[in-house]
Design goal:
The chain contains 35 helices and 16 strands. It is α+β, with helices and mostly antiparallel strands and 923 residues long. It starts with a helix and ends with a helix. Bound molecules: adenosine-5'-triphosphate (ATP).
Length: 923
């Protein structure tokens, strides 16, 4: 079926070739078709979402007249005609239902029927199994490919064509008027030397040679892949899409994977008579209701024809320019084509799915404290019997069976050596623990670094020669990779044991951390879980399909193909259609979320309700193991820990079995016995658990990182705010700032001083010298004495300044020289005395050398030192360019740039008259 985008493009090309304003350049168009048949296939490569063409504005203007052909020519049995009509419209009245049920019998003897499948994979498996059953030599033709391999998958011919003489084939390219796409024939001769296959097409015997197939990308505006191959495919079976348009006499329709409205109708409608049709695996859910717009389209009235057809000569107007809306929203409305499973990778790239799921991270851990130490590190409290508890109860995978067997053997035959191994690793791991977190008597704060350190030490030990020789001692031979697998289980067990006992008091933050809540707690979460579960199933299905396809024609691999085929069938059984869910799901409220998340992968993730229940179970189990507390204990190993716990849960596995109790093993064309079914079941269980663990682990790690990131950024933000505050206050308020303030009564500087005082009174200590404080006191009418300590002066200011709205006696604040004079006049107390007093008071708090006033000689000497570049600023370590830009602290005697101490360079501080303390000493 033509899509809206394709229709618009054809119209555009015709109009441009004709260089005309008329639609299609004035070319008369007669369109025919049945919209209740297969809908257009979306084409991701060309950004075509696969909308019905009648939705295009151009279509509405061009096809104003509609004629409904209602006489069916292919079939002549009224009940059969009605049944095809019903199922095409998504209806299943009783008479039609009964008729379809009756058609589930084998076909009466006759020619080999063609089997129709909804999905390519089923067709391929069927074709391969039939071909291998046919006598004769298998011949293969391999294509010559160029370009992007993912695009090559879209080709209608495969990379390899496997055929035998007398096998049925179908032409997949129009070669001439008679040799058309879809024509069926039988292979008569095969010549691999000159790449030719002779085919008998109903008496027309023709040599078919290799043809070039290309994939064009309108996005890249070029051919992105090409394949040179014989244009034939095997035709024991075909897809329903491929069979559309054919008229057949004997058909078997496998309806198990019908995924589109119209698909079943097309399949059933290919055959002339009921007696030539057999239905396989038919369910009512295969009858899918088409979208409403289709019914609306047929209900629309048609415009009557005018005799001169003037009604059809409409000019193209810009108002009907291409409806490119869907280019923005390429696939939100789209559904999947039959190729969907093969396009998963491509789709994933487009929706930015993180494929790197499950990569371990070592460096993240939170900062809980370890309170309790319960293990006596000198003795090993673990017995060999305890080791048995690390054997999994339920054996799902081959690896588990293997580990169990090996461990049992060691426990029976190498008890002594195993005991030595156990004691030694216990001691070593305990030592490592102590080294990192301290001894049992000390409570030590642990942080992410410590945990990383701990796990890296464990890793080093487990790869040391000492450790390897321990294992070799137990095995009585050179250690192999299998041995390490077995012993790593005991190693993990001991490591967990030690941490478990030491961290038993760690606060379990499961409830407070959002990342550890179950998906299934609310509707949105359930919707998300359905999507995740569906993705796990779809990925698993794709995985087995690929293995199956790769081994399809290898004779000795047929059991592997059967195995994969059965697994795919089981996975199919777990899914349904969105329409079915809308009608019958008990979790309808959650479906919206599933649909929203599906976007491109719509259809892939519609899993049945009972399958969702099973995943809810997994999820609830998962949060018991996948939480912050467990993360502390297992570090990067948490993924394996969670995975193993879920894998070995008997309840989960039996729930999984229950899910499939009604699955009909006989409904497939491959022979399946009970053992194979059970093996497949276990493998699938293991695969789905693994995939689910990867997704949840990925999410868990992301959430952890996010929460750590938030903590980190909060600390950082705090620091920035504090620094900014400090900078602000210390820079904003200084004597020169107050003096330069031209506002009335120096309101501006008053406010700044006020805010500086309110924020932190101690900052004032840093900003002003004693002399300046005296000045300020005078300006605010505060009675201060030069004998007062700086702190007392500040306290006075602190108590007074907030009570004023501006500086009351601005006149008292003059320039610094005047200030000095003012202070001189105020009190005639020797400054040296005050300095001594102040220094001795400070000395009570911290030890400091007694204050010695710098004599002119000392200053001169210092000056000389400065000039000889011997002295540098103690903050920035840079030299001083001028004498005036430096200042020396009277407590620590260090030199600083004034600016490094937030003192403006032009500010004069005569240190022969007053002391000055650097910021550090003030603190
Ligand atoms: N006027 C006719 N008289 C006799 N047989 C006819 C007539 N028209 C069509 N048929 C036969 O009916 C069958 C279906 O015809 P055709 O494929 O053209 O229909 P269609 O509408 O394209 O079908 P579909 O869309 O279902 O594939 C063919 O076998 C054709 O030979």
């Amino acid at each position: 079926m033509l899509s809206a985008k394709m229709f618009n493009q054809i119209e555009f090309i015709c109009r441009n070739i004709r260089d005309s304003d008329l639609y299609f350049g004035g070319i008369q168009i007669i369109g025919s078709g049945d919209f209740f048949q297969l809908p257009p296939v979306p084409d991701l490569l060309n950004r075509d979402p696969g909308e019905f063409c009648f939705k295009s504005d151009v279509f509405k203007n061009v096809f104003r007249h509609k004629v409904v052909l209602d006489k069916v020519m292919r079939q002549d049995e009224p009940d059969f005609v009605k049944a095809i009509h019903d199922i095409s419209r998504g209806e299943l009245p009783t008479d039609t239902h009964n008729l379809l049920k009756r058609l589930q019998r084998p076909l009466p003897p006759g020619n080999d029927p063609i089997r129709l499948f909804a999905r390519n994979f089923d067709r391929e498996v069927y074709n391969a199994s039939r071909l291998l059953d046919l006598e004769g030599d298998l011949k293969s033709f391999h294509s010559l490919d160029e370009g992007d391999p993912t695009k090559l998958r879209k080709m209608s011919v495969g990379q390899s064509l496997h055929i035998k003489i007398n096998c049925p084939v179908m032409l997949v390219k129009n070669l001439s008027k008679n040799l058309v796409n879809g024509l069926q024939g039988t292979v008569q001769e095969i010549n691999t030397d000159n790449n030719t296959v002779t085919v008998n097409f109903n008496g027309l015997i023709t040599d078919i040679k290799r043809e070039m197939f290309t994939v064009y990308s309108s996005i890249d505006n070029k051919v992105v892949a090409s394949r040179l191959q014989i244009p034939l495919v095997l035709s024991y079976g075909a897809t329903i899409h491929k069979a559309q348009g054919l008229t057949l006499d004997r058909v078997e329709v496998d309806s198990s994977n019908i995924f589109k409205a119209g698909q079943l109708g097309v399949a059933v409608g290919r055959v002339r008579k009921k007696k030539g049709l057999r239905l396989i695996d038919f369910h009512t859910k295969n009858v899918i209701k088409p979208e409403k717009s289709l019914f609306e389209f047929y209900e629309l009235n048609s415009v009557p024809f005018l005799s001169d057809l003037e009604c059809c000569n409409i000019s193209y107007s810009l108002a009907t320019e291409f409806n490119l809306e869907f280019e923005e929203n390429v696939l939100s409305e789209s559904e999947l084509s039959e190729f969907t499973y093969e396009e998963i990778d491509e789709i994933e790239k487009m929706v930015h799915v993180n494929k790197n799921m499950g990569d371990p991270i070592d460096s993240v851990a939170s900062e809980d404290e370890i309170h309790n130490v319960q293990v006596n590190l000198n003795d090993c409290p673990i017995s060999l019997d305890d080791i048995r508890s690390c054997l999994p109860d339920m054996l799902v995978t081959d690896e588990q069976v293997f580990i169990n067997e090996r461990l049992n053997l060691l426990l029976e035959k190498h008890k002594l050596q195993l005991n030595l191994y156990l004691t030694t690793i216990f001691e070593n791991i305990s030592d490592i623990y102590e080294q990192v977190f301290g001894s049992e008597s000390t409570e030590k704060k642990t942080d992410s670094k410590s945990w990383t350190n701990y796990f890296s030490k464990l890793y080093k030990f487990s790869h040391s020669n000492e450790y390897i020789s321990l294992i070799e001692n137990c095995c009585n031979r050179k250690a192999e990779s299998d041995d390490f697998t077995v012993f790593s289980r005991i190693f993990d067990f001991v490591s967990h044991f030690i941490i478990e006992n030491k961290t038993s008091n760690i606060k379990d933050s499961t409830e407070s951390s959002p990342q550890q809540s179950a998906y299934s707690n609310d509707d949105a979460g359930l919707g998300k879980l359905r999507y995740i579960a569906g993705r796990c199933i779809a990925k698993s299905k794709y995985h087995y399909m690929t293995i199956g396809k790769n081994n399809m024609y290898k004779k000795n691999k047929q059991s592997c193909v059967t195995d994969c085929f059965l697994k795919v069938k089981i996975l199919d059984y777990m899914t349904t259609t969105y329409a079915d869910l809308l009608e019958s799901s008990s979790y309808k409220e959650s479906l919206e979320e599933t649909k929203r998340k599906q976007n491109l992968t719509q259809g892939l993730t519609d899993i049945k309700d009972d399958v969702l229940d099973f995943f809810v179970d997994i999820d609830r189990n998962r949060i018991n193991y996948q939480n912050e507390k467990m993360f502390h204990k297992h570090g990067s190993n948490i993924f394996n820990f969670v995975h193993e716990k879920l894998l070995s849960s008997k309840t989960l596995f039996s729930n999984f079995q229950k899910l499939l109790q009604n699955f009909d093993l006989t409904a497939t064309f491959v022979r399946v016995d009970e053992d194979l079914a059970m093996a497949c079941l276990k493998a699938l269980y293991s695969d789905l658990i693994l995939r689910f663990c990867r997704v949840s682990d990925n999410q868990f790690r992301k959430d952890l990182i996010k929460s750590f990131g938030m903590q980190k950024s909060e600390t950082l933000r705090k620091r920035v705010v504090e620094t900014a505050k400090r900078d602000n206050t210390s820079k904003q308020i200084s004597m020169s700032y107050i003096l330069n303030d031209k506002s009335e009564n120096k309101i501006s500087s008053h406010l700044k001083l006020q805010s500086c005082i309110c924020d932190s009174g101690t900052l004032v200590l840093k900003c002003f010298t004693k002399k300046q404080l005296m000045c300020l006191g005078k300006a605010y009418d505060i009675n201060m004495s030069i004998k007062d300590t700086k702190q007392a002066m500040c306290d006075n200011l602190l108590a007074t300044v907030p009570n004023f709205i501006s500086i009351p006696n601005v006149g008292q604040l003059t320039n610094s020289e005047d200030n000095e004079q003012a202070v001189e006049n105020l009190e005639h107390v020797p400054v040296v005395e005050d300095r001594k007093q102040s220094a001795s008071k400070k000395g009570s708090k911290r030890k400091r050398k007694p204050y010695t006033p710098k004599s002119r000689i000392t200053r001169k000497k210092n000056l000389e030192k400065i000039q000889k570049d011997e002295i540098v600023c103690s903050i920035c370590s840079c030299k001083f360019n001028t004498v005036d830009e430096r200042i020396q602290c009277d407590i620590c005697d260090n030199w600083y740039h004034k600016e490094c101490q937030n003192i403006s360079a032009d500010q004069l501080i005569d240190k022969t008259e007053d002391d000055w303390y650097c910021m550090k000493c003030c603190e």
